[in-house]
């Protein structure tokens, strides 16, 4: 949260009379918060000594989530240059609940500061509702956590239980405990209970006798033929809805039939099996767990009413709402009321001492049932039967419901058998049984999805820096593609799969990363990472195999709370901090700030440098490290292994025959990243020699277009360091006047925009300013700031024009250009400006003619 505490800036907690006591009374669990003191009670000490309202809101936001069953602990509050403005950072497990907790925390602290009441119970109830609607269920969550333990990432694909595990072509999908390879026919069979009975019976597997009825008359006839007691259930249904067990006469049958008919018009009436309710879980054809289940029930004490006994059971700290705890609280629903009516019971009546009263017909944990693990007691014949059932139905993960005296002996035909099979069976009863040994059933499930012997990694190469990100990332993607890989790229020009753009626009944030990582065809992901996306929404991935940190300079200072170069460097350093232990961090040894962050880099460090005698390079090589350097015009890899001469910089087209030193640095960084990935040197050499500064391969990045009598460069460079770097290249390309069509960036602070203008005046002879997007400023305001920066630097006023329409500004440049001149067009939206430049080319050059067909 960006929080304005207003007048409370002058009122820390110790100045608010009675505030701390009111807060502790309302949320006593805050006494366990350690804060900076480091132990329980630390936060309360801070409150009594005096701390800011923003800091208090942080702790309250965390504790509200904990009280709603979402344990979180990390939080930080930072001040800003703004008076009373604070950045409040805290962890959440469910985003909707996290946002609500922040809003509620501010309201709660404000109310208590003013000695007003606050309804915390309603807030916690709302947070619980958000948790239940948005948090992954226990089964899916156990699978995700098991996958993460193995380094397999997870992407949630909807607000329910659809999750992608792994990236790219190695991804697998689960929805609850169904997989992308779960048989659709198997699910359909499991959903049709009578069809299941027929298949299993034909295979010699015991099932209860029964038939399907579509009317009460038919149901009554079937029940009388079978003999009471019978079980009544909808042919299609789940979660125990509409099921009635041990229906004992025609009167009870009428009620049971109506309940089942409301779920499905085909109703199964079958002979009641005798014994306990068991659930067996089979994954990948192997029995992995078994539990004896008991429906929600109470036991009388001779004095307490049914409702009082329910309340006593629900007071068990193991019970909670939905999936928040091991057991679920018992609620009274239509099924419960029907069971009470069958036995002439009411909620107000007392229950005899020792008498057990069932409140549900089915033993589902989600309705308050309990489970006892019996996996170790399953008879070999029962094990074989269940594993056969999984194959007969055709399910990779199946729950098998059995009614029998026990599973420690073969099932007796006629009185015991399989009553149902379930697609997407719940894991909760096995992960955390009420009694007995917990079974880590997520492990065999993930083993089935990702066999341990197979490499399921899709390498991620993440590139950050102030300048050069796009070019370096595209060079890496290009080289990988032409080495035979299917590459996904996301950056400021859009998203491309195998070199084909699928989405245009700036996708250098986490949304671009997610599009690529969700793509099922790719085997490598190359991601350009900008600081804005990191600050606002994070990276879009948990870890990467290669992190490239090119450079850092004073761009975007004063934006998104980043106040100086050190803060900006730490934001960008996030990319190298998440490099895997087995991965590689590529750092610029020529940038002292970047090199100084080596202690934050994950994996193995590879430096790159334009200076082979760079002291950092020398020390790194002396310690057995690896570096890629420019040495006598050649790209060379030094390491404990034999030195590798990759190629001459003259063979890398984007260096413009060595004139574009900034692109030489980008090539060195790309070579370091590709070498770190283990790509053979001949493939690296092929990649850098075939990557051109063309509009097709690297649009908007040093695209040089020859108009025969003059040249035009289209380039994205939009900050002072980029202008200075361009200034070192242009003298190698022309001796004529240099004209620029440029724009400032309105979101920068005034001083940066003026510095941009001063830099333009050092490089160009004519400046045409076109500010199509004021970005929150008044029209022409940014252009006037750029102009003032140029004039303050001694530039002639007559050589600066403001033409805020980009097309007209470009046309003006073509009006004043003379033979031997060079126009540099600074682009923001690449495609429209490239089209505009090429339209001028077509007008000036005329129709193209093929003079000779080249082989």
Can you characterise this structure?
With 855 residues, the chain is an alpha/beta fold. The protein has six domains: 2-134, no CATH class; 138-182, no CATH class; 209-272, ATP-grasp fold, A domain (Dna Ligase, domain 1, 2-Layer Sandwich), CATH 3.30.1490; 296-359, no CATH class; 460-689, Mur-like, catalytic domain (UDP-N-acetylmuramoyl-L-alanine:D-glutamate ligase); 703-845, Protein-Tyrosine Phosphatase, Chain A, CATH 3.90.190.20. The protein is 36% helix and 21% strand. It contains 29 helices and 37 strands. Strands 24-23-22-25-21-26-27-28-29-30-31 form an eleven-stranded mixed beta sheet, with helices on both faces. Helix 3 (53-67) packs across helix 4 (95-113) and helix 28 packs parallel to helix 29 (830-845). The radius of gyration is 35 Å and the shape is elongated. It holds the Pfam family Mur_ligase_M. In the C-terminal section; belongs to the MurCDEF family. Residues 197-450 form the ATP-grasp domain. Its EC number is 6.3.2.29, 6.3.2.30.
């Amino acid at each position: 949260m960006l929080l304005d505490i207003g007048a409370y800036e002058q009122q820390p907690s110790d100045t608010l009379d009675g505030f701390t006591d009111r807060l502790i009374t309302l949320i006593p669990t805050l006494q366990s918060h350690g804060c900076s003191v480091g132990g329980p009670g630390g936060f309360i000490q801070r409150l009594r000594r005096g701390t800011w309202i923003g800091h208090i809101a942080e702790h309250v936001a965390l504790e509200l989530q904990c009280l709603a069953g979402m344990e979180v602990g990390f939080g930080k509050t930072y001040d800003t240059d703004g008076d009373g403005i604070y950045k409040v950072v805290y962890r959440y497990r469910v985003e909707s609940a996290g946002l609500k907790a922040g809003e509620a925390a501010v309201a709660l602290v404000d109310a208590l500061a003013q000695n007003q009441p606050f309804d915390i119970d309603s807030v916690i109830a709302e947070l619980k509702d958000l948790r239940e609607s948005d948090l992954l269920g226990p089964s899916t969550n156990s699978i995700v956590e098991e996958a993460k333990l193995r380094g397999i990432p997870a992407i949630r694909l909807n607000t329910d239980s659809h999750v992608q595990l792994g990236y790219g072509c190695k991804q697998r999908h689960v929805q609850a405990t169904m997989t992308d390879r779960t048989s659709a026919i198997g699910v359909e069979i499991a959903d049709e209970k009578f069809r299941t009975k027929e298949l299993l019976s034909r295979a010699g597997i015991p099932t209860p006798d029964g038939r399907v009825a579509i009317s009460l008359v038919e149901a009554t006839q079937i029940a009388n033929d079978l003999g009471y007691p019978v079980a009544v259930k909808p042919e299609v249904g789940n979660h125990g809805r509409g099921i009635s067990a041990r229906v004992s006469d025609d009167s009870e049958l009428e009620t049971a039939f109506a309940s089942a008919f409301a779920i499905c018009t085909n109703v199964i009436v079958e002979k009641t099996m005798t014994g306990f309710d068991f659930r067996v879980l089979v994954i990948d054809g192997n029995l992995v767990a078994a539990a004896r289940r008991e429906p929600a029930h109470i036991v009388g004490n001779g004095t307490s009413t049914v409702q009082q006994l329910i309340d006593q059971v629900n007071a068990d700290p193991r019970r909670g709402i939905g999936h928040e705890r091991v057991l679920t609280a018992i609620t009274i629903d239509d099924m419960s009321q029907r069971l009470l009516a069958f036995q002439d019971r009411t909620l107000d009546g007392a229950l005899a001492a020792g008498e057990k009263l069932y409140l549900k017909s089915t033993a589902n944990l989600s309705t308050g049932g309990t489970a006892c693990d019996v996996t170790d007691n399953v008879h070999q014949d029962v094990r074989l039967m269940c594993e056969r059932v999984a194959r007969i139905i055709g399910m990779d993960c199946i729950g098998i419901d059995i009614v029998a005296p026990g599973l420690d002996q073969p099932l007796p035909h006629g009185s015991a058998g399989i009553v149902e099979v379930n697609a997407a069976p719940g894991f909760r009863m096995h992960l955390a049984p009420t009694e007995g040994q917990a079974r880590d059933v997520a492990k065999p499930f993930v083993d089935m999805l990702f066999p341990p012997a197979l490499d399921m990694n899709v390498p991620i190469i993440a590139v950050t820096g102030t300048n050069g990100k796009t070019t370096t990332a595209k060079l890496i993607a290009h080289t990988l593609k032409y080495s035979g890989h299917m590459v996904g790229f996301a950056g400021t020009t859009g998203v491309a799969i195998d070199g084909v753009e699928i989405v245009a626009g700036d996708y250098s944030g986490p949304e671009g990363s997610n599009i690529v990582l969700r793509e099922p065809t790719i085997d490598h992901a190359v991601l350009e990472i900008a600081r804005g996306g990191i600050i606002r929404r994070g990276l879009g991935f948990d870890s990467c195999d290669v992190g490239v940190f090119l450079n850092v300079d004073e761009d975007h200072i004063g934006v998104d709370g980043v106040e100086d170069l050190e803060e900006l460097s730490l934001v960008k350093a996030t990319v190298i901090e998440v490099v895997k232990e087995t991965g590689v961090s590529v750092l610029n040894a020529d940038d002292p700030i970047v090199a100084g962050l080596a202690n934050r880099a994950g994996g193995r460090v590879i430096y790159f440098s334009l200076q082979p005698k760079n002291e950092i390079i020398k020390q790194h090589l002396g310690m057995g490290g690896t570096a890629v350097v420019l040495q006598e015009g050649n790209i060379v890899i030094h390491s404990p292994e034999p030195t590798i001469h990759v190629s001459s910089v003259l063979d890398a087209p984007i260096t413009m025959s060595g004139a574009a030193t900034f692109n030489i640095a980008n090539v060195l960084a790309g070579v370091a990243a590709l070498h770190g990935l283990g790509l053979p040197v001949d493939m690296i050499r092929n990649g850098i020699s075939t990557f051109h500064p063309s509009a097709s391969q690297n649009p908007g990045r040093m695209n040089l277009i020859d108009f025969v009598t003059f040249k035009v460069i289209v380039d994205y460079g939009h900050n002072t360091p980029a202008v200075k770097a361009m200034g070192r290249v242009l003298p190698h390309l022309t001796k004529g006047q240099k004209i620029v069509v440029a724009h400032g960036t309105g979101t920068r602070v005034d001083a940066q925009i003026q510095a941009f203008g001063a830099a333009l005046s050092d490089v160009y002879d004519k400046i045409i300013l076109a500010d199509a997007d004021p970005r929150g400023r008044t029209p022409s305001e940014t252009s006037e700031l750029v102009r003032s920066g140029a004039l303050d630097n001694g530039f002639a006023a007559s050589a600066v024009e403001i033409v805020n329409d980009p097309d007209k500004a470009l046309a003006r440049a073509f009006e004043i250009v003379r033979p031997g001149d060079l126009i540099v067009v600074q682009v923001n939206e690449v495609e429209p400006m490239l089209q505009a430049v090429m339209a001028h080319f077509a007008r000036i050059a005329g129709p193209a003619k093929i003079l000779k067909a080249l082989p």
